[in-house]
Design goal:
The protein has one domain: Sandwich (Jelly Rolls), CATH 2.60.120.330. Strands 1-2-10-7-12-5-4-3 form an 8-stranded mixed beta sheet. A 4-stranded antiparallel beta sheet has the order 6-11-8-9, with no helix packed on it. The longest helix is centred in the middle third of the chain and has 29 residues. By secondary structure, the chain is α+β, with helices and mostly antiparallel strands. It has 6 helices and 14 strands.
Length: 296
């Protein structure tokens, strides 16, 4: 099964999105930015790559995540497993990563990144809301049903990763990002690296490459939206394989407000009763993850 590629300007974007996210759970939208916006995205990746490759290790350590807050800060190589990989035997990811939360104020951010980040966050948030508006049409729900609960950038998180090129020293059973599903609503993945080896496992259980296209983003469906739509939308497993060349990516993870009450919407609504807050769903997903982790 090919990974869908959807032109942002397509007259059939709603139907193409429906097909992509009910069967694959992910797709690449292209022609998404204006010339000015695209230039800013490219500048962000230039700044990000320069920081990763030139900042002294002690400078990075000053922003390292802590046990009390692992959602904000720098994560060293080999210390994360695909966000929360489903494979407990997988070694830590072959990457460094910077998690950025509190996006409205951007506290405790490396000064080198701050100026470009302030210009980039609004672009990603706006594009995310535009994507979600398309899904409202896919699901035939009133305008604002989903956008209005994803409109606070402080609910979102950026994960900016440096996938190091694989070499002879790479450990067995270690890839750039271990296989996993996202536990949020919608994930937007941006990259200026043609060699990034992102793969999605479709419903046919086959891993498929997602080819690079300039001026584009990959959108992955999160588990919360899969639950919200009673499995009408599909949240896929995905991973990043190693490549001899390095690559950089920025994931924009969009989460509904925590107290939002999730009751089924879309074509599958009404098949059975369901009502739970987003925070309670996330708590149940964390418990499930810990059961997997403890099998190691």
């Amino acid at each position: 099964m090919n990974i869908p590629v959807i032109d942002w300007n397509s007259a059939n974007i709603v139907e193409e999105t429906r097909e992509a996210f009910t069967h694959v759970g992910g797709g690449r939208f292209y022609n998404i930015w204006s010339e000015e916006e695209n230039a800013q995205i490219k500048k962000w990746f230039s700044t990000l790559s320069e920081w990763y490759k030139t900042a002294p290790i002690e400078d990075k350590q000053a922003f390292q995540v802590t046990k009390s807050d692992n959602q904000h800060g720098w994560i060293p190589h080999d210390e994360e497993k695909g966000g929360e990989t489903t494979n407990p035997k997988r070694r830590g990811d072959h990457k460094e990563q910077l998690n950025i939360s509190h996006l409205s104020t951007l506290p405790d951010i490396p000064e080198f990144l701050l100026e470009d980040l302030k210009k980039t966050v609004p672009l990603m948030q706006k594009k995310g809301e535009e994507v979600i508006a398309i899904f409202e049409k896919v699901l035939d729900v009133p305008e604002g049903t989903l956008v209005d609960v994803h409109n606070n950038c402080d609910d979102q998180q950026i994960r900016a990763a440096w996938y190091l090129g694989a070499d002879e020293e790479i450990k067995n059973n270690q890839i750039s990002c271990g296989e996993h599903k996202d536990r949020n609503g919608f994930t937007l993945l941006f990259s200026e690296s043609p060699n990034k080896k992102l793969q999605v496992k479709c419903k046919d259980k086959v891993w498929n490459d997602i080819e690079y296209i300039d001026n584009s983003m990959v959108v992955n469906m999160g588990v919360i939206m899969e639950i919200w739509t009673a499995n009408y939308l599909y949240a896929p497993y995905h991973r990043v394989l190693n490549d001899v060349d390095e690559s950089f990516t920025t994931g924009y993870f969009m989460q509904p407000h925590g107290e939002t009450i999730v009751e089924h919407i879309g074509p599958n609504a009404g098949e059975y009763e369901f009502s739970m807050t987003v925070n309670n769903i996330r708590a149940e997903l964390r418990k499930a993850h810990m059961r997997i982790k403890n099998k190691k």
